[in-house]
Amino acid sequence: MKILISDFDGTFFDDDYLNNIKKVNDFVDHGNIFIIATGRSINNLKLDILDYKIKYSYLICSDGASIYDNKHNNLFVCDIDRELINPICNLLDSDSNISFSFIENDNIASGTHANTIAGKFIDRNKCENLVEEINQKFPLVYAYLSNDHINIRNKKVSKYEAIKFLINNYNLKSENIYTVGDNINDIEMCRNFNSFSFEHADKNIKSVSKVIVHNFSEVIDILNAK
Length: 226
Description:
The protein is of the alpha/beta class. It is built from 8 helices and 12 strands.
């Protein structure tokens, strides 16, 4: 049995999404496990998975701040500390390079809990100093830049930590795990497991991934050949 843990946007969810789903479902039908690991909240993720009958076993959401089974029962949650929500949002809103900020959480009134806080930037290069400021000023959170946003989560969580939670609590074997991702929030999980990334991916994740492929479909083909 193989366990494939995949980033969503730009990895599994790309221009070949329907074919990727077909290949994953066939992969699962042959006795394997598929897990989605995304920076999205579950409410955001549902917009692009609910109507597609994807045979996943678990959803790692908000970069590992929340974990769900395939019935969307919550298995784990680790929010940003409540007292930090307003100061972080105020800092984002005061920066002229941030066009808007928002809180992502799971079925809880906005503003009282936060799996993640994010801000959409105008100029990525100008946002690097803000990331550094947040990480220095708020040591209990971790901020990083994705393609379009500055993303902030509890420092205790990551996709890698979420995978360790599943290993420890749901009898997954490390030696059976394969990961695939394309951006900075996938680095830890790709460094610590048999991993894939893409030629177009962030250079930092390519440097820690074991195999570089052209697309998600190629990952499945390689795993099926093992």
